[in-house]
Structures
1.
Amino acid sequence: MSTHPFDEALQLQAAGEHRWRGTPHAAYWNMVGPFGGSTAATLLQAVLLHPELLGTPLSLTVNYAGALTAAPFEVEARPVRTNRSTQHWSITQTQPGDDGQPVVATTATVVTAARRDTWSLSDVPMPAVPAPATVEPVTLFSGVEWVRRYEMRPVRGPVPRRWDGQGEDSVSQLWMRDAEPRPLDFCSLAALSDVFFPRVWLRRATQVPAGTVSITTYFHAGAAELAQTGTGYLLGQARAQEFRNGFFDQNAQLWNEAGTVLATSHQIVYFKQ
Amino acid sequence: MSTHPFDEALQLQAAGEHRWRGTPHAAYWNMVGPFGGSTAATLLQAVLLHPELLGTPLSLTVNYAGALTAAPFEVEARPVRTNRSTQHWSITQTQPGDDGQPVVATTATVVTAARRDTWSLSDVPMPAVPAPATVEPVTLFSGVEWVRRYEMRPVRGPVPRRWDGQGEDSVSQLWMRDAEPRPLDFCSLAALSDVFFPRVWLRRATQVPAGTVSITTYFHAGAAELAQTGTGYLLGQARAQEFRNGFFDQNAQLWNEAGTVLATSHQIVYFKQ
């Protein structure tokens, strides 16, 4: 029986047709509520547990409607349409409100697919970076629990040491993996797609409150690429495109050490003036 | 009363709380079902018509679960959580199946937001390209109705003239706008985010069946930027990152002629071997 904290965080109990119950895990706590990546992984896990599941994850969109508390939550994961090779899912995560009625904390949609071998080609080669062992690991922020669950070795664009408003670009590259080794799976890949600190901190060299509003991850990995990766490092690259009136977007790519793209991801993030 | 075909395509009749009815418009017909961009715009329109709407569109994810027929459809657009400055929407589009029961054709999530003026910055400058008037307009595919609704002036990466398997990259740039002038709004911006032909055709110079599975668009424009754009051209840029086992992803950016980013968009697309 695994005692890895990520497996503990993914624990869900069946609670009727299309329904599961769980509790946010303290090991993945962020400043307010759990790390968004672990929430995304939990919603994906509900799909993966579903008896009607077809195929493997292709696309995951998670909308963070309100912060989860440390209390139990319920997830409804419903297959709304099953085709020959794709399946579409609608997911809602709720917690009881003050009046006991369920309040929506998170919504998500997932597409799963039975994939076939076809012509394949990568149009975004992995950037040339030093090997993981030659890059110093850092702890992003002491006092934030979830960051301790990941080993992070920044190659480019680390968290600014001086908040002097003198940022130059929004690109970060880092080698990363679970701090306690755990073979990569779709849920941990979903979580790793969201480990990048807010681009506004880097571009402005100014630390302002920020939080993901919506994230979409496309899974290019199948079982073979996950197995090839194992407990190895991923190279993550993130950059913003546009900061405008309280929100910015962020693109990310995740490669394994062999240079295979495992996932590409995008998010829109709230930031305070 | 407008007779613009896009306004006709956006026509929805109220059908009870959170519900609307409409019919796909023949002017936006694709090879199988309507142009995905017009479907996305229609689902967004249901949110914009909703009496409880807060703010303007920030994020739109549309999942194409099955092709729409030319028959009437129903849209349910439900505000699942309203915060002080953001609102989260879940949308489902159905058509009656053979047994008369509703079948899900499309799902979507939308986030709307009341936006404030803040520090803003563009981290992806518009590429240097010739002015629209100096670029020849083309008709992408004769016989496909929706492409006639748009004026398209390709700057780079046009549809291959020879399907010889000799593609070099997946980048397209084109000036584009409604063929019949219509001031830009959120719905037409959502549709324009999906006009790019499948990247696999460009990268492989091979024409294979392909279709969008899921698209996410982030709106950076507010009312001021829409008004600034009016009936002018947008520069659209699209590129793929990864083609793998039947699916590829595509990133897009849309600028107005003044060089302002109006939207960034991402999609995952099915393709046949």
Note: Chain B touches chain A through 60 residues (CB under 8 Å).
2.
Amino acid sequence: MDIVQNPTDIQQCAGERRRSGQTIGLVPTMGALHQGHLSLVAAARAACDFVITTIFVNPKQFGPGEDFEDYPRTMESDLDLCRAAGSDLVFTPAVCDMYVPGSSTTVEVAGITEILEGQSRPTHFDGVTTLVAKLFNMTLPDRAYFGQKDYQQQMIIRRMVSDLNWHVEIINCPTVREPDGLAMSSRNRYLSPVERDQALILNRVLEQADQLAAAGQMSPQEIQTGMAETLRNAEGIEPDYAVVVESESLQPMEKNFGCAVALLAARVGRTRLIDNRILTFAE
Amino acid sequence: MDIVQNPTDIQQCAGERRRSGQTIGLVPTMGALHQGHLSLVAAARAACDFVITTIFVNPKQFGPGEDFEDYPRTMESDLDLCRAAGSDLVFTPAVCDMYVPGSSTTVEVAGITEILEGQSRPTHFDGVTTLVAKLFNMTLPDRAYFGQKDYQQQMIIRRMVSDLNWHVEIINCPTVREPDGLAMSSRNRYLSPVERDQALILNRVLEQADQLAAAGQMSPQEIQTGMAETLRNAEGIEPDYAVVVESESLQPMEKNFGCAVALLAARVGRTRLIDNRILTFAE
């Protein structure tokens, strides 16, 4: 497995592979890898000739007061995990090489970035889309792999790819969960044992929403109201949002059926967690 | 010469050429082609295996009250000119295919877009960069050709390419002028015979600035002041700006020597024209 730090080198490596006819799979991560990330690498490995995993804690997607400095950095074990999962190359650029002095270009998706996560983290998605644009241009992947856990992010990236005509297929990989249902997240390690237990309510609320949607007795709005109430009453949980929205635009649903997604964000102690579930409403 | 209208088709055409090892040259235009544009096509023809000229009057780079509706559209003669100049393919997309309903992504370069042209045309460069990003992704050119006449635009595109890591070489082609010195522009056809004559002052002012810089007796600031005054006093001219600035950042020069550019914009009657000249200061 190759480890490449320089943007020029990754561009060259990927170019050589592409010219030799290989398909390229890209798995962008911020490191602190867990089974969720590794499922992306595995999916890429199964479908692509050459798998590039990127490990880069992207300062531009952290706001002031967020955990950029403290974000877990576990490069050595990350590299072992990438190797074991079948990555061909890991790209681990330095911040100063990704954002050279004087750089001033931003890729912005309007609308869908301004709601939900965007309300709490107003510059977050501009940081994500700008970085992903750079990674796409550096590697020109045939397919790029994103986890469903960051649902809004994935919808934004799909919008960006479509709007700016990158020739890359965005592959969704299901959220990987702990045995007790908690969605895997690099931030779970911030949780105390008590908080870890309290955090289970997030998945439970989504499971319940799923069952209610399938039962077909409640409207999206009613389910949403119930989710919010359950979270508000849960011990140790400070909910940020809990919604049931149209699955692509993330706008309120106008009808009870069709593709919906339940999305939530909450603080558990000082740790902010997100989770989601696709809902299928009985017609 | 192929004529392609559909973004998916151009992506496929360009992809096939690239995979067969051909180098691709891209010449983005808004049509109403003149010798300036054709010099770009000729430069691409000389250096690339496959030359793509795009003709698209991009609504996003026109502000309210600008001449989007009236912008000259001369497709038939444009196609003849492209053919004669050696273009292999002309891409002539429809607005609705370039900006599909719901599209909401913008590529924004901060700073350098907010001055000079950006002051008079606040949304102009976002429209340019977003379109050029799309064209780059559709065609993945090895080289893209831009005229020096749109100097600020070219600097912005260079910044964007560098910041977002497109693997494309930006080629500058010198401004092509009428025999009497007027820079060629699709908007020159708006000028009445009297205005056409009055417009000559733009090039004369730049020529004078060039001579003064070479003579080494005046500072950039003094030359700039002289340019502005000459334009203010010229019959039929309503100057917008006239500056001598650092040639890459377009910021005021801190020293008298090095790379400078004189840039100006003015209305001649109702027609807004721009022009520029690289200055070399005697040390």
Note: Chain B is about 40% helix and 20% strand.
